[in-house]
């Protein structure tokens, strides 16, 4: 699809109302109509069958996206060099795993990606794509901006893994001469299936080998092992402000879980506390802090709690109770947090599956799937066919100021109707939106590019074979799409 949407911009009106360009991406045949080098929009080959995508931007303004074809089917990847207005299909990051004989490949499951700018090499960028194989994690690295990838099929130091996340040190040239590891240091977090612990292992050679292993759950909170839902991983970056303050390379792992050891004894306890693990020694050890303790009947273990870091070093954690979306912020490197602040508003009466990206000091974008339908006590899995979902963008340009508010706009056309199951592979309902999606921003403008899942037939636009008006809203139409912000305020 290639459509333009316009939505209310609120305070962004000074820059003009937020508008978006929406289109599908080209997967590599047989998992799509395209090939390496296909550019979208503008080609009838812009079709794919991928889902649950991720997206990141480098400091030069290139945007990278990945999406999964399913276990054993490999990962799709794309790049934009024009602020998200067009995306070109890249080689599959884990294509080499098709002939790998380690038993830990091929990939094609849960995907995440990261970019690391190398301060020692002007303009040098490393791109890392992680892909789950269940037995382990494929980690593919590129030093030529995605034109080719080298595969490490055993990125996880503990085999037998689920829902990995990846983060790179994207520090810039260091004017103070302090040590940096940008472009070479990359860390991977995941659940090991045997214990459900959250493991964090790091590489110092650009993902060729992972040698350092830490636990995101510290010994004082051991009751959280096997009682948590993992969120993403983020690494702080160098910050140089006019007041002389300097940032850090802290590693942050966010998750939700129970509230105390006594709750671990129960059989039906809720993950009503949002937690963050903070490492100040490069990922060797972590200290856990509560972000927010919700009512004991509330669950925040919905895909997924999310953390992002702005250029000042402020942290933002977003989380959903399955109906409304909230964020908390920290100006103390994660040791203390603001009360929860609601993000979504009508017509996004229900908001799920959040992701965030932070820009300059206090500037925050949050995306989520939203619908005007709302029914207290009813999980989105059981919403009626009248519930129409969109990918939403909410923006706050003063997110560390008490009392600040968000503007909100639907960034996509309807991308699903009916129920949305958030139980992962345990779903018995409709899982066409899968578990997560993402947003990145172009550094120079701060404008957003959103990658999301869509199960709709779009008349007049390329559709995957088998996707027809009769099969819309089914897995026959599942694909990964883009919503790129053309106008409105940015977070740079």
Description:
With 492 residues, this protein is mostly beta strands. The chain has one domain: Neuraminidase (6 Propeller). 0% of the residues lie in helices and 37% in strands. It contains no helices and 31 strands. The strands form seven sheets. It has a five-stranded antiparallel sheet with strand order 1-2-31-30-29, with no helix packed on it. A five-stranded antiparallel sheet has the order 3-7-6-5-4, with no helix packed on it. Strand 21 and strand 22 form a beta hairpin. 58% of the residues are buried.
What labels describe this entry?
492 residues, Neuraminidase, 0% helix, mainly beta, five-stranded antiparallel β-sheet
In terms of topology, how is this protein built?
Blueprint: E1 3-6, E2 19-24, E3 39-40, E4 51-57, E5 63-68, E6 75-80, E7 87-89, E8 111-117, E9 125-132, E10 137-142, E11 150-152, E12 161-168, E13 186-192, E14 198-203, E15 212-215, E16 228-235, E17 251-257, E18 273-279, E19 287-293, E20 306-309, E21 315-320, E22 325-330, E23 341-342, E24 350-358, E25 364-371, E26 388-396, E27 407-410, E28 416-417, E29 438-441, E30 448-454, E31 479-487
Antiparallel strand pairs: 1-2, 2-31, 3-7, 4-5, 5-6, 6-7, 8-9, 9-10, 10-11, 12-13, 13-14, 14-15, 16-17, 17-18, 18-19, 20-21, 21-22, 22-23, 24-25, 25-26, 26-27, 26-28, 29-30, 30-31
CATH class: Mainly Beta
Cα distance, first to last residue? 28 Å
- Strand ordering within the main sheet: 1-2-31-30-29
Shape: globular
Q: Fraction of residues in helices?
A: under 10%
Number of β-strand runs: 31
Tell me the CATH topology.
Neuraminidase
Count of domains:
1
């Amino acid at each position: 699809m290639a459509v333009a949407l316009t939505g209310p911009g609120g305070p962004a009106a000074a820059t003009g109302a937020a508008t978006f360009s929406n289109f599908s991406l080209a997967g590599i045949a047989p998992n799509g109509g395209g090939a390496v080098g296909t550019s979208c929009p503008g080609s009838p080959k812009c079709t794919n069958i991928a889902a649950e995508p991720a997206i990141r931007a480098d400091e030069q303004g290139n945007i990278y996206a990945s999406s999964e074809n399913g276990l054993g089917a490999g990962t799709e990847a794309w790049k934009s060099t024009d602020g998200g207005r067009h995306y070109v299909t890249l080689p599959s990051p884990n294509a080499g795993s098709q002939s790998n004989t380690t038993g830990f490949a091929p990939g094609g499951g849960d995907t995440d990606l990261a970019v690391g700018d190398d301060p020692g090499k002007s303009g040098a960028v490393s791109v890392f794509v992680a892909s789950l194989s269940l037995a382990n994690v494929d980690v593919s690295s590129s030093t030529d901006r995605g034109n080719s990838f080298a595969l490490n099929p055993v990125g996880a130091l503990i085999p037998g893994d689920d829902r990995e996340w990846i983060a790179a040190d994207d520090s810039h040239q260091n004017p103070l001469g302090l040590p940096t590891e940008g472009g070479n240091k990359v860390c991977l977090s995941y659940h090991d299936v045997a214990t459900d612990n959250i493991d964090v292992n790091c590489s110092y050679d650009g993902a060729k080998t992972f040698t350092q292993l830490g636990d995101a759950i510290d010994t004082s909170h051991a009751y959280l092992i096997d009682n948590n839902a993992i969120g993403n991983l983020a690494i702080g970056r160098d910050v140089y402000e006019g007041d002389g303050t300097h940032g850090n390379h802290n590693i942050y792992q966010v998750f939700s879980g129970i509230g105390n050891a006594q709750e671990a004894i129960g059989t039906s306890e809720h993950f009503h506390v949002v937690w963050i693990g903070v490492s100040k020694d490069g990922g060797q050890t972590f200290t856990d802090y509560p972000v927010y303790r919700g009512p004991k009947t509330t669950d925040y273990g919905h895909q997924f709690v999310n953390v992002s870091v702005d250029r000042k070093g402020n942290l933002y954690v977003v989380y959903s109770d399955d109906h409304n979306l909230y964020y908390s912020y920290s100006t103390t490197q994660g040791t203390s947090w603001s009360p929860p602040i609601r993000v979504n508003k009508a017509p996004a009466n229900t908001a799920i599956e959040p992701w965030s990206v932070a820009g300059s000091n206090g500037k925050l974008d949050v995306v989520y799937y939203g619908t005007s339908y709302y029914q207290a006590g009813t999980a989105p899995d059981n919403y009626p066919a009248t519930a129409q979902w969109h990918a939403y963008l909410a923006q706050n340009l003063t997110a560390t100021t008490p009392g600040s508010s968000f503007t909100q706009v639907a960034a996509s056309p309807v991308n699903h109707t009916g129920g949305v199951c958030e139980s992962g592979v345990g779903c018995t309902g409709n899982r066409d939106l899968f578990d997560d999606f993402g947003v990145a921003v172009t550094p120079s403008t701060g404008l957003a590019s959103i990658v999301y899942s869509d199960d709709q037939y779009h008349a007049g636009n390329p559709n995957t074979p088998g996707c027809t008006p009769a099969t819309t809203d089914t897995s026959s139409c599942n694909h990964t799409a883009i919503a790129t912000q053309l106008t409105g305020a940015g977070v740079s």
